[in-house]
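Entry 14. Structure prediction run on the chain below.
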Amino acid sequence: MNSKINSQLPLLLIDDDPVVLEIQVTALESEGITNVLTLTDSRKTVRFLEENPVSIIMLDLMMPHVSGLDLLPVLLRDFPNIPIIVTTSSDDIETAVRCIKAGAVDYITKPVEIERLLLSVANALHINELSKENRILREYLLNDRLEHPAAFDAIITNSKKMRAIFKYIEVIAKSDQPILVTGETGVGKELIARAIGELSGRKGAFVTVNAAGLDDNMFSDTLFGHKKGAFTGADQPRDGLICSAVGGNLFLDEIGDLNETSQIKLLRLIQEQEFYPVGSDVLKKTDARLIVATNHDLPSLIASNKFRKDLYYRLCAHHIQIPPLRERREDIPALLDHFLEKASRSLNKTKPTPSREVTALLSTYHYEGNVRELHAMIFDAVARYTTGLLTLDCFVSLSGNGYNLTNSALLLPGKEVDEALYGFFGRFPTIKEMEDYLTSSAMNLTSGNQRSAALLLGIARQTLSKRLGLPA
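Output returned:
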């Protein structure tokens, strides 16, 4: 088998033939599965399971005393969360199919082929993992609670969307599958990745690799290392950063920038959990769990043949999409207070109080750079601040970005902003801008007919003509 099989709970093999059990145990141990339990007396199964939690049951259908056929419905009823693989002789396939319809996840014919056995176990473990995640996720969503809120202390938020993401992270953090984190620049993808690492339970390091700007040679050397003499200047062997992440988490940022050759190497790393250092023909293994992030739209890159579809589906076993700051404006007051405190401490100044106009500005600003941009805005404003209230004068850098500070909406803190208006104008519009927009739209809809356009707008035709600068 190429894929490593992981199981925290034991596998239970039930068969009255000790020789068959020995063959199956040996095959599983060859794949690194050493936590295997066996049972030859099917009558003891229910009591055994009550005392010993297991991840999978492999059940022989033909046994004395209590057959697997009789035992299967009992196990499905009393232990519904344990996947069951049935084993049967080659002439019992119709019976096996009935077992699948009843609820077993797979069947294997005897004599058992080793590859078939390992594949079936790997699939059943995956089903068990997904089932467990779904149960926990449902519980979290129903109870609206976090098991480990401290893991998210670095993320300042009051957003229900972000809280839902936190709950999902708690469910998947211990998974061995890759995790894909997507979102616009500055939304906090690395903070999310670090929270996943903290909750993963892995004792190894959290290692970060930024793939932006790396060609394939640099990517391979950074990630996989090289042997001595692999290229000019390689005077000493070097372990790649993936070796530093043994037993931990490898966070690969900006994976949307990888070229095709690097994508192929990353795909192999995920599929086989193995790699070759540059210049070496000695295969190395890794158990590092992969977390990747990008601000690119990967499906669009796939459509333009810039990103491999097979790699994408490998990466998004668990997918976290972080919403931009403009879609969670309830976070802005808390972030403002946090950054004011942080900037004041850093610049050795008294923490200022923002004016009503500043609060309105920050409540309606578009934030192309999201939280990172807000952070920079506050630090720059506090640097310019002297005494009194923190006013719009401290945000002069925004004028250079084409933002009209004098026309900012003067909204009270906590007021909801009309997202449709903001999404169209990029900010809260003035009355003149709204009038110009409505007038232009009405004229377009009526193909320039002033009378019809005036009816749409609810004004006199003469008034419309005056606004258009035309004779009445």
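The first helix runs from residue 18 to 30.
Filed with the rest of this week's runs.
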